[in-house]
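User: I'll paste a sequence; please echo it back and then give the predicted structure.

Assistant: Echoing your sequence first, then the prediction.
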Amino acid sequence: MSQPTLVLGSTSRYRAELLRRVVADFEQRAPGTDETPLADETPRDRALRLAIAKARAAAEGLDDALVIGSDQVAELGGAVLDKPGTAQRAREQLSASSGHEVHFHTALCLHDTRSGEDRVHVDHTVVKFRSLGTDEIDRYIEREQPLDCAGSFKCEGLGISLFERIDNEDPSALIGLPLIALSRLLREAGIALP
């Protein structure tokens, strides 16, 4: 029996680099999902809803595929930290995070087009930022340009120096794709992994 096509429902280079750690052959498709938050939606629920929506949107027109959708929502004191987009917003986010815990909800959906089944997982990571000075924040932003990252940092790069600790079950989740959970979901769907 042939293996289904594996599709990453994301154009994120970070997620593609992560996925290459566990599988060599996959396609990438842009899901084109509306990411507008819903009223009274928790950050965890938002991440899960968007991961499912991305997987299903990227699966359109496919009949023998496993489609991966993922979304991450960062939360500081109940407020969502979206991708900053500008250096000024990144400064504001990092200043607000300084000395505090930021919660990251990284949701994953593996949509099977053969059965219509969704396998899902949500990873919860807590990042404790150390106290950051204005000059440190400015140097970090100038050097790493984390403008397309929720929370305004790249933990796989220099961003790791901003933290006191990271508490989670899967270190890849903070980068944007929980590989331990994904490997389990792929095995459950019949994909042979080492």
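The mean pLDDT is 94. The beta strands are 5-8, 27-28, 65-76, 79-81, 101-112, 118-129, 163-167.
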